[in-house]
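In this section we walk through a basic example: taking a raw amino acid sequence and producing a predicted 3D structure, encoded as discrete structure tokens. The instruction is simple. Fold the sequence below.
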Amino acid sequence: MKSRLSNFKNILLQNKLVFLNFLILIIGIFWLKEINYLFYDSFMSPDIDKYIVYFDHFFSNQTTNKEHGLMYYYLHSLNYSFLYADLNNFDFFIHKSIQEVNFYIFLFGLSGYYFLLRHLNFSLNVIFPTLLFVNFFPPSISMRLVYKPEILAFALLPWIIYLLEQFLKSKKIINLFLSIPMIVTAITIKGNVLVILAIYLFFSYFRIFFIIPKKKLVLLFLISLISFTAMSLENNAANGKTILDIQSGSAIEENYNFKAPYSVIYKIDMYGLLSSPIKHDHAKSFLGITLLETSGDYFDLYWDNDASEFFKSRKQIISFVQSNEIKGPELNQTNSGFIVYQQRMTDVYLYEAIGLLLSIFLFYSLIISSIKKTKYRKFLLASFVGMGVLLFHSITGIPKNNFDPLVGDTFKPLYYSFVLIFSFTILIATKLSEKYKKIFNLAIYLILVVFILGFPKNAEFVPDINMVQKIQSSLFCPIEKHIYLDNQDFNSVNCGLNNLSQNTNKENSLYLNKIQHKPVNFLFITLNLFTALYLVFRKNYRKIEDLSLLLKSK
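The resulting token sequence is shown next.
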């Protein structure tokens, strides 16, 4: 009996189109991984100053006074302790470690989506382009850039859904037992993740309770309760808080001590979205923020952050020039771009406008498909559960007020990105399965996303010293040197970590301490990995009716 891995290999070798799609996916994943690592600094991550305390906890055992579960931060601390704790240049290596762990978590989630889509009977020629979409979907990119735990929920959700769907199909109770570690891990990540997943899983899979025999249902409940209690007790002891004891918002900053008006649900200024897509201008519009942020960077935290290399030296492909005459666009021979003539000069937000249009197109498709496609409706509606939870929390102030009327950052799609990505993944897969030619639309989308990120760069682009250090430490350093450092000022740059760890004093001696391990969290990390590996390599064993024949054949 061949393993799934062997079958997968044979399929790739036998089908050239499948192999091409797979190759493009791999190139896209690693290209974007390197771009994220080189062009962004994890110390620009929103709220990193608040959550770096988890690092401190694992190396000093001090109470965090935060409400998040430990596992996401434990994974980061393990990676840093194992690879970089003995090296100098703390700021640099903490960035490298954060990017690495986020990438590993992302790959874990991407693998889950592969198995889920296969279970839903999508072909490989649909699955690989769909996963490429996930890779370049802006909420997926922002998750990998920052030091925030939503990416762990993203990674666990497809595996959870896969196991629940497997149970519904096969009625094998083993699938439900295997799902327990992943579900418990997911709902102990963060309060918003707990509420969103609890509501979504309950309403989507409520009928499971009527299928399971009562004795096994009781056993499942007891194991889940014990697991959740053990994980919560360990997290609460480290935090001095519970997962529902929200520390963000009004508990810390008085400007968040407000409830959002009901009008945030429907209020939207379409003209304003195009003419003034500037952060805080749409603070009281949930729809406005959602459309601008889903395929863009409305809050200027990621690729539109003017301190990031993403933002710097963007090539002006389209230049806007005032003219008294009505003229069509012209090719600019100087910079190989286009000149667009305007009779009246106004501010043009090209990147924001493209992102807005992409978001409108995606959400329109999602709404229409949610109405028409009853087969996948429960998957397509997942993102709306996340939106609903955020709106309910902001409008009612339950459990605490958490809305700044001047900013509106409570509505960031990042907070429900794991269900947002889930819904759009299924959407793209269904669209490609209906008509494979739509892959050309996907290609255009990917090109526009790369443009929104800040590419191509102009000829005057010169990386700063921080980016040079990142290139030195990269596995792709020999290639990236010729791409980004083809300048006489960087001729002496050598590849390797040793060049970066010897010229800086260790100011953060705290992180030289041995890491404080968390037995329960470590157990669940192990169980989650074991579950995934078991599902990947699981074989369909046949009953052996003639043992003597088997022995004879040896």
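Looking at the output, two observations stand out. Residues 4-240+250-259+352-461+505-537 form one domain. Strands lie at 318-322, 330-332, 337-342. In the next section we compare this with other chains.
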